[in-house]
Amino acid sequence: MSGGHGKKARNAGTTLDDIVGGVKEGHKRFLEDTSPEKLDDYQANIITPPLKDFYNTLVAEIEKRFEDGTKHITKKDEKKLREAAVIAFKEFFKKARPETLEAIAGIKDLDEQYETLSNAYNSMIGIPARTQGGDVGGIDDILKSYVGNKKMKINAIKNELYALGPQHAQFARQHLESLSYTVNLSTKNTVALAHYLRKEAGKKGYEVGDHGQFMAQTHQQFPGLIRGLETGNFGTKGHEGYHLQKKGEGGTIHHMSDHQHRHAA
Fold first, then answer.
1. How many other CB atoms sit within 10 Å of the CB of residue 176?
2. How many domains does the chain have?
């Protein structure tokens, strides 16, 4: 009898420790992985140099194939654009991820190389393969939009490509942060994570205004909340967007909660 009681207590204690400890450890690793210093180093020294190589090479190869900058790329010349892109992709992956070039070593067909490399690029930068709902499309989608587009002359294409480098470096930085959250926290119980972050908010001088709304937040909101608590910058939503208020503010958010309680009743 006593043995059964002891087993139950150990199991209950271990389970609770696992939940709390797992959230705490995941939170710690996420903050370490996404510190401004690490993200700055990744953006400045790891992803930006190969991106510069990619876009400089792509523009240079386009210039070789399309000498008149006032012309557009016709549909029959799409293969020339793909040829230029494949050469540029290879320059990118020499620095960014050499094993990708090893993986395509046996692929001889130009179109297959193009599809494989463009997908690998999109995956590394963290952009979708196709434009959806106004979101930025993948590099293959962008290049395809130039083909047969009489409004996009070669010179305009070159200018747009040069501008994409810094933009994609920022996307890659955000993607790295997102990957770290996925690895470290996305499998954690959302209520347990919210409970933990409520305590962290208290340490930073915040209190929860609407407990129901705060505890109902999901993995979509948590990265911004964690970032805000760590840096003080909650983005355009402000700390109120995460159902927090400065300690001692009182009032406004609580009234929302009171209304919800009456509605629920």
1. 19
2. 2
The rounded distance, in Å, linking the Cα atoms of 45 and 36 is 14
For the chain, give the longest Cα–Cα distance: 89
Please check whether residues 162 and 202 belong to one and the same domain.
Answer: no
Closest CA to 88 of 164, 167, 171, 179: 164
Q: Are residues 103 and 208 in the same domain?
A: no
Report pTM.
0.79
| Per-residue pLDDT tens digits for 202-253 | 999 999 999 999 999 999 999 999 999 999 999 998 999 999 999 887 654 4
DSSP structure string for 158-181: HHHHHHHHHHHHHHHHHHHHHHHH
Q: What is the 3-state secondary structure (H, E, C) of 73-124?
A: ECHHHHHHHHHHHHHHHHHHHHHHCHHHHHHCCCCCCHHHHHHHHHHHHHHH
**Residues 116-141: tens digit of each pLDDT:** 999 999 999 998 755 445 556 789 88
Task: Say if residue 42 is in the same domain as residue 172.
Answer: yes
- Cα separation of 207 and 184, whole Å? 25
Segments forming the whole domain that contains residue 211? 2-35+187-264
Same structural domain, 30 and 128: no
CA angle centred on 203, ends 198 and 209, rounded to 5° = 45
